[in-house]
Amino acid sequence: xxxxxxxxxxxxxxxxxxxxxxxxxxxxxxxxxxxxxxxxxxxxxxxxxxxxxxxxxxxxxxxxxxxxxxxxxxxxxxxxxxxxxxxxxxxxxxxxxxxxxxxxxxxxxxxxxxxxxxxxxxxxxxxxxxxxxxxxxxxxxxxxxxxxxxxxxxxxxxxxxxxxxxxxxxxxxxxxxxxxxxxxxxxxxxxxxxxxxxxxxxxxxxxxxxxxxxxxxxxxxxxxxxxxxxxxxxxxxxxxxxxxxxxxxxxxxxxxxxxxxxxxxxxxxxxxxxxxxxxxxxxxxxxxxxxxxxxxxxxxxxxxxxxxxxxxxxxxxxxxxxxxxxxxxxxxxxxxxxxxxxxxxxxxxxxxxxx
Length: 355
Ligand code: DAH
What we know:
This protein is an alpha+beta fold. The protein has two domains: about 1-90; about 110-340, 2-Layer Sandwich (BirA Bifunctional Protein, domain 2), CATH 3.30.930.10. The chain has helices at about 5-15, 20-30, 35-45, 50-90, 110-120, 135-140, 150-155, 175-180, 220-235, 290-295, 310-320, 335-340; strands at about 125, 135, 165-170, 185-195, 205-215, 245-250, 255-265, 270-275, 280-290, 305-310. The strands form two sheets. Strands 1, 4, 5, 6, 7, 8, 9 and 10 form an eight-stranded mixed β-sheet that branches. Helix 2 (about 20-30) packs antiparallel against helix 4 and helix 5 (about 110-120) crosses helix 11. 3,4-dihydroxyphenylalanine binds near residues 254, 284, 285, 308 and 309.
């Protein structure tokens, strides 16, 4: 038997018997390591008689390939076996009910934001975000609220530097600016998020939530704004009819501007939304001021649109019968357990928002 055949037969049977990776790797280095048997055979090619050299080299290559392939196959096989063994041990039965786990609850504000996003996404709005720490320009100046404008005083701003250039955004309106600066019209976006003002009582918190809306396109008018808000309020409160009124107002970034009230009545100490003869203000809105469009390099002759800003916390309080705004931020586990929502029950338009 030639030496090559002997090597091959010896290692084939060794390989057959081996069953773990370290053994196989040992075989591999015995054959192909620096001083491995096959490697040594290759060194012999140079000293072999010329008449036999060609045949020897060809046989050696065949055997080398064969052994290498077998070793690789064996490694794959053993690795697979080991993975399967591991998986067998770590098996998780995903069909088991998770009833025994203690589940967290979704905060009513998060739930309300999800509901709002779901409603607006249905009519083509996408969601944008902006940072809580804003610059003065985006928060005020670009929104047509220059220095010394009286509207600035109404915002009780938290400034973060002495020059009053950096601040905690007082509303979500700066996201309008960020959105319009980074892209070209048309725009149809909402921007929910945190906002900050130095104010605190039963209906005001220094940190609260708003959702901004912005729709810019050709020939957009107040009728579109009214239709959009009417649809939103009905969907949000899950009612077929809603009493709603637009009251003339003033915001520097819209012209004309309006505040929207919805009708309500008190029944057994509870607020019933959509009926009655009392009015509750829930949002500010209007047609985007031409100066705002100019500030973001949009020609107001070509593009117009509407914007709105809704107080999220107030909507959540109304819908879920929560009467103190501060309780939202108390981190009281019992409160959250009572008012919170099932984390697995994500609000969608088709399955129902708050069920
Ligand atoms: N930013 C206003 C506020 O916080 C709310 C608002 C009013 C937003 C009118 C708008 C708007 O986009 O058009 O009081």
